[in-house]
Design a protein that fits this description.
The protein is of the alpha+beta class and 164 residues long. Helices cover 18% and strands 28% of the residues. The protein is built from three helices and seven strands, in the order αααβββββββ. Strands 4-3-6-7 form a four-stranded antiparallel sheet, covered by helices on one side. The chain has a three-stranded antiparallel sheet with strand order 1-2-5, with no helix packed on it. The chain is globular, with a radius of gyration of 16 Å.
Length: 164
């Protein structure tokens, strides 16, 4: 793990990686970092999500908005699993896209609306393989410069939970 952290910081210093929020394309990210040692998807997502490379505003631009925050709970198991996503910090009344990526890089998305206070409560059945890790993140569609996030969107934290 120290070698990966070093590679990430080196990429940041070269300007290749201003900030990264997992977008499901882990293989592309690994190539951008010139990773040579094998690493699990879970370890890469956890490490990259923990790094913050926020840059100060330039030329009087305003600071980027703080990202939303989510947490996830589950009920049921396997093909009957139901996940509840709770979040704060979204734009009130806006549609929120919730992205779920498993360790096999299969991506699922669903949409719900944030309430007027910017809070999200979304219950969604997601059939999954018991024991497999799922990685949840969410966006209300606010855009940010690619230097802030390579996807161009302001994403929440990534919440990892095991399929029950």
């Amino acid at each position: 793990m120290p070698e990966l952290r070093s590679a990430v910081h080196s990429a940041r210093d070269r300007g290749v990686l201003p900030q990264f929020r997992p977008d499901g394309n882990i293989r592309m990210m690994a190539r951008a970092l010139d990773l040579t040692a094998p690493i699990s998807v879970r370890s890469l997502i956890r490490l990259l999500d923990s790094l913050h490379f926020d840059r100060p505003p330039v030329d009087g631009a305003s600071a980027p908005a703080p990202p939303p925050h989510i947490s996830v709970g589950s009920a049921g198991s396997g093909s009957g699993a139901v996940f509840t996503v709770q979040g704060t910090g979204f734009v009130g009344g806006h549609d929120v896209r919730v992205r779920v990526v498993d360790d096999q890089l299969t991506q699922t998305n669903f949409n719900r609306s944030a309430d007027s206070g910017g809070n999200l409560t979304a219950e969604q059945p997601i059939p999954c393989i018991s024991g497999l890790m799922l990685h949840f993140s969410a966006t209300d569609g606010r855009t940010v410069p690619p230097a802030v996030d390579m996807t161009g969107f302001l994403w929440s934290n990534t919440f990892d939970i095991r399929c029950p």
